[in-house]
Amino acid sequence: MKKNFLTNILLLVFLNLLIKPLWVFIEIEIQNKVGTEHYGLYFALFNLTLIFNIILDAGIVNYNNKEIAGNPQLIEKYTNRLIPLRAVLGLIYLIAVFIAGWMLNYSSSALFLLASLGFNQLLLALLLFVRSNLQGLHFFKSDSLVSIADRVVMAFLILYLFYVAKTGVFKIEWFVYVQTAGYLFALLLASIFLITHSRIKFRFKFDLAFSIVFLKKCLPYALIGILMLLYYFADSVMLERMLPKGDEAAGIYAQSVRILLALSNFSYLFSLLLLPMFSKMIAKKENLTELIQLSGSLLILSSVFIAFSCAAYSHEIISALYGKANGLGMMQRILLSFKGEFYAVQNPSEIALSANVFSYVILIFIPISALYVYGTLLTAAGKMKWLNITAAIGVIINLIGNFLFIPVYGPLGSAIIGLLTQSIVCILQIGYAKKKFNLVFTWSNGYKYLLTLSVFAGGLLLLQQTSLGWPLQIFSAVSIGLIMAIVSKAIPLYGISKLFRSRIS
User: Fold this and answer.
1) pLDDT of 1 strictly over 50
2) What is the mean pLDDT of the chain?
3) What is the DSSP string of 303-357?
């Protein structure tokens, strides 16, 4: 079964590598077509629906996954009682989102868009619940296919709409409706897989006593979810509401966050592999230092190389993705970048601000990657109290910081506060994990990291003096860093391979 687990994780990563980068480019092109202001409003409204998402989930997905994995015979009972519960939670969620939008003084058209996005979140929550049953029953291949089904449908529909509207106006509402279609298709596919695999018979029944008991058991999972949603997504809503041109500011901020989230998805997939390994080692009371150092060096050093390389070329990256350049499309701008050819953008002030914001936002990738190692360790150990405390600290810093910085610095202020928040939460979690699990950091490892980072920094500076296109310079800089990390054994490649084989095979 453990070999199957690794196989399915690799399948999940492969499928996501296949579709997620395409989806990122599609989202970028949508923003370019609808304009920064319209997309900024959509981005703020979308994040507002995410903040209230905990009402939809309330920790149900994670707890249900855990329960079904240990007791697969409960699937019919849980499904028939939890789907009606989720319907009730969905109604409460939609009302809460609408009231929040009304209190924030959004226009009637914005409220309609908000309601549509809320309905999409309702579909997504139901989809994730059905997927949690597939995961709990260990039907990982089916779950992997479902995980990209919505994006595949959305991608085809969006590309069709791009073709239809190539000479006209692309409306942001179309993007929302396409998401609805994608989620409906994925939900149908997931339901077919679940019925086929489990032979479940649907007899829906709302059981109040069961619902109350179940929700109480989900509370530890729900609280951490509430806090993380707040400090991850509140900034864009605050930007859009607090500034005179808030929709434009939120749109500029979205340009950078989109790239950060795309990169963070792969760190998250890595954490899915670490979680069962940590859980098994903690249960057997084995020493965790080696696995922490191996996984941490791989994930954290890689994030350092990628983040600083992207920050060094922030203006070039943002220009290629979002610049308006005499009718040149995004892919044409990227191809010119590979050739090292220059093109002038027609929105230089927007690009300059967005590039400045991006140079801070992309650095958040480093603490996020570290959190996917140490946060996963604390989750495996059941240290929910400390995770909740650090998340609460993150919320306080983020909300107060954004309240003070946004009026003065705009989206740049949100980027700075985001970096500060994630860094502090990261330091707190690493410090607690180090103390709790007696993790040892040796000076020899410190010298290896220092040597690796010095060579990487030197290589990056030298590459900037060459005539290579910036994409090739970034690729070369990251490659230099990784090669040096392997040569210096800061990333012990053989050790990682050996340990993963011993734990999974």
Assistant:
1) no
2) 82
3) HHHHHHHHHHTHHHHHHHHH--BTTB-HHHHHHHHHHT-----S-HHHHHHHHHH
Question: Is pLDDT at 285 greater than 60 in this prediction?
Answer: yes
**Size of the chain, expressed as the number of residues it contains:** 505
Please name every residue paired with 328 in a beta bridge, in sequence order, or none if there are none: 325
Provide the whole-model pTM: 0.82
Interval 302-321 mean pLDDT? 91
Angle, vertex CA 54, rays to CA 52 and CA 60, nearest 5: 155
Cα-Cα-Cα-Cα torsion 104, 108, 114, 119, nearest 10 degrees, comes to: 130
Sequence-ordered list of residues with C-beta below 8 angstroms from that of 276, at least 6 positions apart, any chain: 5
Measured CA to CA, the distance from residue 164 to residue 443 in angstroms comes to 61
Q: DSSP 3-state assignment of 442? A: coil
Q: Which residue has the higher pLDDT, 283 or 264?
A: 264
Q: What digits encode the pLDDT tens for the residues 233-246?
A: 888 889 989 998 88
**For residue 138, which of 70, 69, 60, 63 has the smallest C-alpha distance?**
69
Neighbours of 163 (CB within 10 A): 8
Q: In whole angstroms, how far apart are CA 275 and each of 139, 150, 171, 380?
A: 18, 26, 41, 6
127 and 186 Cβ atoms separated by less than 8 Å: yes
Q: What is the pLDDT of residues 459-497, one digit of tens each?
A: 999 998 888 888 889 999 999 999 998 888 887 766 555
* Tokens, residue 252: 């500029």
**If you average pLDDT over residues 17-43, what whole number do you get?**
85
DSSP 282-298: HHTT---HHHHHHHHHH
Q: What is the pLDDT of residues 365-415, one digit of tens each?
A: 999 999 988 988 888 787 878 888 998 999 999 999 999 999 999 999 999
**CA 88, chain centre distance (Å):** 27
Please say whether the beta carbons of 153 and 186 come within 8 A.
yes
Q: Which residues contact 321 (CB under 8 A, 6 or more apart)?
A: 28, 255, 259, 330, 333, 334
Check if the beta carbon of residue 188 is closer than 8 Å to that of residue 56: no
Q: Are 288 and 436 in contact (CB under 8 A)?
A: no
User: Which of 195, 223, 264 lies closest to 389 in space, CA to CA?
Assistant: 223
Q: What is the pLDDT of residues 157-210, one digit of tens each?
A: 998 888 776 666 788 999 999 999 999 999 999 888 888 877 677 677 777 777
Q: Which sign, positive or negative, has the C-alpha torsion 218, 73, 78, 376?
A: positive
CA distance 9 to 318: 32
Strand partners, 325: 328
Q: Phi and psi (nearest 5°) for 169?
A: -100, 130
Distance of CA 133 to the CA centre of its chain: 22
Contact in structure between 475 and 305 (CB atoms under 8 Å) = no
